[in-house]
Amino acid sequence: MISAKTLDKILSSLSLSRKDLARYLESHFHHLDTGYTETNYKLIKDYEFRIVEVYDRGRKTTRYFCRRISFSIEDIIKYTKKYKKVAIDNTRVFPFIKQIKFSKVTEGEIKKIFDILRRENIIRPTQNVFDESGKQIAFLISDDDLRDLINQIWRMRNLELERLHEKLTYLEGPTKKEKEWLDLTYGSNHASIIIHSTSHIRNEMQNKENSVVTHIETRIESLKDRIDQRALNIHKAYRKVIKKFDFPPDILEGICLNKISLT
Q: What is the pLDDT of residues 96-136, one digit of tens each?
């Protein structure tokens, strides 16, 4: 999630404004009972945008989301160095790649992997908008269907986070599984801040009218229904590409709270 100021900055680098986003509209969802609105936009270069509007006690809140889907060798090196500083159980955090221990991967090995992926036409180079030097090569997944599948999974993850945040804020604290997922997503320090801050709001809500609580429960339930429907849609729409690339179902354990079957 980003601020409105950051959104404008990113769009400006793409020679666009918020008004221009209308040309890239991909999907729009609005729930009449809760007022929840979600707008997704088509890929712009290597950036994906989403705008969500929610109503809380009659007040509208707008949340902006941006995701860069390209990646570079430098990104992967930086990521692996980050985890060298932390003692983690790789088999728990990355259950879909149990055979890899990130702390032992060298820069040379990462570069060799990128060479293999390029040679097999799994990835292709693209322009890095924010690299003013022009020296850093960014990559995208070459196959459009595979890239779309991964995007759809990440969108489901975003809905999972949205639902979990609403639940923590208004209904109840996290389960053990949800806390682990927050730790994985945000890091333990930030996850603790989220749990503490939402607990404070939740305590203030205890004396609210039943109608307010019912409204919130309906909103959360509608998000759960959308997550379940998205999982079903992914299975139906991407069955062929899943089979073509032998896409591992367990990869979802590292991305989504709820595991779905792709087989």
A: 444 344 456 788 888 999 999 999 888 998 866 656 666 77
Token pair belonging to 167 = 């639940």
**Angstrom distance (rounded) from CA 203 to CA 18:** 37
Decide if pLDDT at 15 tops 80: yes
pLDDT at 101: 44
CA distance 72 to 114: 9
Cβ(257)–Cβ(181) under 8 Å?
yes
Mapped onto helix, strand or coil, the DSSP state of residue 8 is helix
Top-confidence residue, 94 or 69:
69
| Residue 23: DSSP 8-state | G
Residues 6+ apart with CB under 8 A from 64: 1, 2, 3, 4, 6, 7, 49, 50, 51
For residues 246 and 242, what is the distance between their CA atoms, to the nearest angstrom?
6
Q: d(Cα 224, Cα 153) in Å, to the nearest integer?
A: 15
The whole-angstrom distance between residue 201's C-alpha and the CA centroid of its chain comes to 25
CB of 142 closer than 8 Å to CB of 122: yes
CA–CA gap between residue 113 and residue 118 (Å, rounded)? 9
pTM score of the predicted model: 0.67
Cβ partners under 8 Å of residue 228, min gap 6: none
Which position has the token pair 């196959």? 143
Residue with tokens 């429960």: 217
CB 172 within 8 Å of CB 179 = no
Rounded CA-CA distance 53/35 in Å is: 8
**How far, in Å, CA of 72 to CA of 9, rounded?**
22
pLDDT at 11: 92
Residue 247 has pLDDT above 60, yes or no: yes
